[in-house]
Amino acid sequence: MNQISNSTVLREARRIVVKVGSSLVTNEGRGLDELAIGEWSRQLAALVRGESGVRREVIMVSSGAIAEGMKRLGWAVRPREVHELQAAAAVGQMGLAQMYETKLRENGTGSAQVLLTHADLADRERYLNARSTLLTLLTHGVVPVINENDTVVNDEIKFGDNDTLGALVANLVEADALVILTDQKGLYTADPRRDPQAQFVHEARAGDPALEAMAGGAGTSIGRGGMLTKILAARRAAGSGASTVIAWGREPDVLLRLTQGEAIGTLLVAQTAKQQARKQWMADHLQLRGAVVIDAGAAAKLRGEGKSLLPIGMTAVDGDFSRGDVIAVRDPAGSEVARGLANYSSAEARLLCRKPSSEFERLLGYVAEAEMVHRDNLVLTTGR
Q: Are residues 68 and 204 in the same domain?
């Protein structure tokens, strides 16, 4: 009998990242498990359509490309050479994307393939572009299926692993929750195969150092991640306010039941609220690349109405910054009103000062966003 969790994290989550491991996706390396992928796809589609009364945005981070490629190439043992791993990933990714597309489409939901590398998330501009693409896909009710772009990375084919990638994607899109589906029921205080006294952990605080001591070493020969990588991923996801559930991927209707508030697996609760985590990060930024000066009307709108900053309210631009940098927003007297993430570089911003959004394309040759700083990426400050 499953208990109902005290936490309403999953029931209230509107944006969820689901990560599923290669041993599940490929049925311990025997090739893509069509039945299992079909089951997860049915549940993902139900969440997107809002069959329980609440529409949700869902991203799938799926391992399995290398394992599927090994099967298609007839390799019984995972190769050690990077170029062979990359070849296996390239072959396997075709089957992986095809399977998710087929199964999601059967359930009336579209899918999109997104391949990421560490460099995509380390570079400000690529990070913002990836974020913008994913949020646009979610707006259209599409399920992005994400994997690491193994064919072009050479750091031993690892982010280090898709648990880490799942957490980074949760950070990227500011998900409410990360669900890691694995071949284990969740976290125990010790390895239950070796210690009969091991206790199941139903709920704990994400980032608690004691959890790392409980988790064992690496994963299976098929996949890269063990329980430790999942604990570390939960800590990383909590940095942007996302709580994590670690659960058995073959539990019937696991995603649907979790989002109905049922306690399945181990829940690792983030200690910081989503918006609070993001805004604290911006407020704590020590190095600002530049600033924009705004008129009194725009300052009043930011302070009193919580509006986004539009270029038409900007009078000057200071410093040299890129899209995605944290910049200060100053009033005519020079006092800092707010800080936030710039949607345009300093060179572009200078062209946009005092201009309505209808002129952006003529001035820049393209249109990204209507705002210089969107209100979701803006934190008010008190005259620094």
A: yes
